[in-house]
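Entry type: protein chain
Record version: 2
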Amino acid sequence: MARVWKKAVRTAFPGPWPPRRVAGQGTLALVMGGVAALLEVAAGSGHPVLLGLGVALLSLLRPAFPATVLVLTSAATGWAAGPLPLLVCAGWSAGARLRRVTALVGTFVLSWALFMVTGVLKDAGSASPKLIVGLSLGGFLLVAVLPALWGRYRAQRHALLDALRERNDQLLRERVMVVHQARLRERHRIAQDMHDSLGHQLALISVHSGALEVDRTLNDRQREAVGVLRQAAVAAMRELREVVGVLHDESTAVPPVAAGAAPARGGVDGIEGLVESSRAAGALVSFSREGEPRPLGAAVDHAAYRMVQEALTNAHKHAPGAPITVALRYEPDALVVEVVNPSAPESVGVRAGAGPAVSGGQGLTGLRERARLVGGMVHAGPTPDQGFRLAGVLPYEGAEGAGDGGAAIAGVDDWVLDGLPPVAGVEGGRRSPAIGCAVGVGAVGLTVLGLLIWGVVAFVQGTDEATVQKSVYDELEIGTPEADVLHRLPPGNSFFTDDYRGSGPKTPEGSHCRWYLSADLSDAWGQDNVMRFCFKDGALVEKEHYLTKS
């Protein structure tokens, strides 16, 4: 039982309840209850304390049950004026807390229906139902619906701001991630350039030192020094491969240089320099160029240079002393780069102490990725004579847009910001909640204005129905049949004349009377000019014209 009670309390008063909220809700409940009790005392009700306690309890339950409190408060306000201030707060809470439009509309329609029904039941004998319905609709729109629209606007605005803050935080996190990825891509590009350029130069150093090591003109001490140099070059290549491997593990993409930028080192025009360097190291390298040269994109130009550089490096490492053939062919739609070498001569072989060739397994993988990013392809494999062939096909135009990924870190902010999606609700996104609330306020205003116009018209019409001209009063004579008198008199309106029942001289015994306002205004302040017509046995038995207090 205690568990059920605790659960009910937590449901009715959901937390958290910091001291500030406890003080605010408690003060509001006391104010609402006190105002309700005072209004009931002013209206002459017999249960102001009980009504004040009920209003205070409903005020406390309002955050947890906004729809229920609004319905109960509307029904109570239609019967008594005490809960009217709470109806304003209940409408505000329902508009702010009810998220579903159907539930919100249904709650307010039901609340207005109860507000109207209780008003009709209370004032059915003193006013026409049509007038009560019109007044209840206008009053409910002003007292409950307008606060609800304001509460809904504030709730939607806060929700939108929270969503925008969350979206902004997410975009900032994504931006940090993208910048981090850009750094990794830049590290990978640096690693690839280190692999291609430094590896090539170290391979040439190793080839040079290997050739000097077998030179017969050197003495043993010089030959030993050259061997140490060669071993140092091999060790440097091994360490370089390890470092490049670590950098490669950080990222899998191999971006080329940025579109439109100059290559880091060389291009197609620098291939002849690579060939000359290999020849100076003692390698037999032939170079041929076929077709009419065409302009190349920066990424394509750089990829062709790196292909030849990597192929020469591999040939120096794995087939020292073998002749190498380098060919560039300008085909109608693509540039073909081809590097072929046979197997190493047996007379060269692997020198004592040289160890196996250092290979990190990154060169060909990097070349294939470079070619793919510019829209080309690379084929590498053995030849029938135990040699090796590397061929690349690179389109002239290339996928220049792919180079954007290799942008330098200094320019990361620009392309990161340009790539961010637009924030919803800022430009061309979700509409502002003020639009819907403004439409609602406009609809309420137009409805109230229409009801006001209708009320003015109805008031004027009711006044005419309850007013008798002095000339008509003078023409009516005692003894005139009741039907003739009623035909001459207006239909009457109890809304304006019910307060005059029982006023004036005593009515004749057994008669029934009708009261009207006189068309002649009273000169006395706070008094009304009243006419009374009494009927008995189907004839007019008395007519009175007197003044009474308003």
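Comment: Residues 23-173 form one domain.
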